[in-house]
Amino acid sequence: MTPLRLEETGLPGVQRLWHGQYADERGEFMRLFCVDSLKALGLVMASQQINWSRTREAGAVRGLHFQYPPAAEVKIVTCLKGEVFDVAVDIRRDSARRLAWFGERLHPRCGYSLLLSEGMAHGFQALAADSELLYLHSVAYSPEHQGGLHPLDPAVAVAWPLPVAQLSERDAGRAFIDSRFEGISL
Fold first, then answer.
1. Residue among 19, 65, 137, 150 flagged as catalytic
2. Which side of the chain, N or C, has fewer Cβ within a 10 Å radius?
3. Among the options 112, 122, 135, 137, which is catalytic?
4. CATH code of 69's domain
5. How far apart are CA 109 and CA 141, in angstroms?
6. Annotated catalytic, 135?
7. How far apart are the first and last CA of the chain?
8. Rounded distance between C-alpha atoms, residue 123 and residue 109, angstroms
9. Residue 64 domain-assigned?
């Protein structure tokens, strides 16, 4: 079986985590997470929480969510069904790329997940009905540390592939970024 490996993307703090894959006449097998393999790649991460989501309608957007320190999290995002446009926004105060975003289509056969470092806001748009994601988090959800960006904020200007069909009340109600936004310190 091929071991896990990391590949850089166009945004520091976001990497592709290629899965160990094996296929035969019965089907396929993929290793999605292995503490020892990640440690060998220089990433020490114990998953503290695993979440699953299904988004029923193509065009629906979830996010852009993050947690403030001390609950800032590393996140591994995997598409199990359908297809999504997965987005990470750099919100690190000291980053030269603050408010830059990276987006990529994920689907079950792509062979990788996205690995998001602390200081990344995360969201996605379902490109197919009933799309399912699996999220591994390095830190458990902390309501008092939750934060988010409006997914249509012109200061970020994510180029969603489809017209945005649905937003949660919470995401739609987020204020746009203004000149006082400094990002988060890690």
1. 65
2. N
3. 135
4. 2.60.120.10
5. 29
6. yes
7. 36
8. 20
9. yes
- Answer whether 16's CB lies under 8 Å from 30's CB: no
C-alpha distances out from residue 138 to 49, 62, 73, 105, 112, Å: 7, 20, 5, 23, 18
Q: Do 185 and 160 touch, CB atoms closer than 8 A?
A: no
Closest C-alpha among 46, 18, 9 to residue 137: 46
Question: Is 150 marked active-site?
Answer: no
**Residue 36, in any domain of the structure:** no
Neighbours of 46 (CB within 10 A): 9
Looking at the domain assignment, is residue 105 inside a domain? Answer: yes
Torsion of CA 126, 129, 130, 131, to 10 degrees: -30
pLDDT digits (tens, 9 = 90+) for 8-56: 999 999 999 998 778 889 988 877 777 777 788 777 788 889 999 999 9
Q: Closest Cα to residue 153, out of 79, 91, 69?
A: 91
Is 57 part of a structural domain of the chain? Answer: yes
Count how many domains the chain has: 1
SS3 157: coil
**Tokens standing for residue 122:** 């995360």
**Neighbouring C-alpha atoms within 13 Å toward the C-beta of 94:** 3
pLDDT digits (tens, 9 = 90+) for 100-120: 999 999 999 999 999 999 999
Q: How far is CA 7 from the centre of its chain?
A: 15
- Mean pLDDT, rounded, of the chain: 93
In the chain, the amino acid numbered 67 is Q
